[in-house]
Amino acid sequence: MGDAYRMFSIFPRKLSGITGIVTSAFMHGDFKHLISNSAPLFILCFMLVLTYTKITYKVMLGVLLISGLGTWLIGREAYHLGASGVVYGLAFFFIFMGIFRKDPVSIVTALATLMLNGGLLYGLLPLDGKISWEGHLMGALSGIIMAFVYRKFEKIDKVVAEEDDGKIDFMPYKYIK
Asked: Domain containing 91 — which CATH number?
C-alpha cells in the first residue's frame, strides 16, 4: 500500500488517519474493488436523486461523515478504504425511510434496495479480515441515522401545475419542512 493510500485512508484512533474520514470513500485497493463499489453506488445515488432530490446532498454528506467517523472510532488497527460504507449508508437509508415513512415511494425504494443488494447483512459480519466490516456497519448506522433525521419531511404526491404556455409541469415529489 503506497503513501497516498495511507494518507487518505482511515486509520482508526490515530490523528494521521483522521483525514480518511472524508477521503477514504474515494480510495480503492484495486480495480476490482473500485468496480464492486461503483455499480451499487451509481444505482443508489440515482435512486436518491430521483426520490429525495431536496435532501440528496445532505444525506450524502451525512452518510460520508458519520460512516467515516464511526469507522475511525471503532475500526480495528488497519487501513480502511473504499466507498462500501457509503453504499451501506445509502442502502440502509432507503430501507429505513420505507420503515419510518410508510409512504408508497419510500416502501418501493426500500424493496428495490433490498432486491438489488441482497447480501447486505452478510457484509456486516466480521468474516473476512481483508474487508472492513466496521466500515459497512458504520455505513449502515449512518443510513439509519439519516433516515431518522429526515423521516418527517413531508412529501406532496403529484404536484401538477399548468404553465402559461399550456404545457403541464409535473413534479412528483416536493419536500417541505
From this structure: 1.20.1540
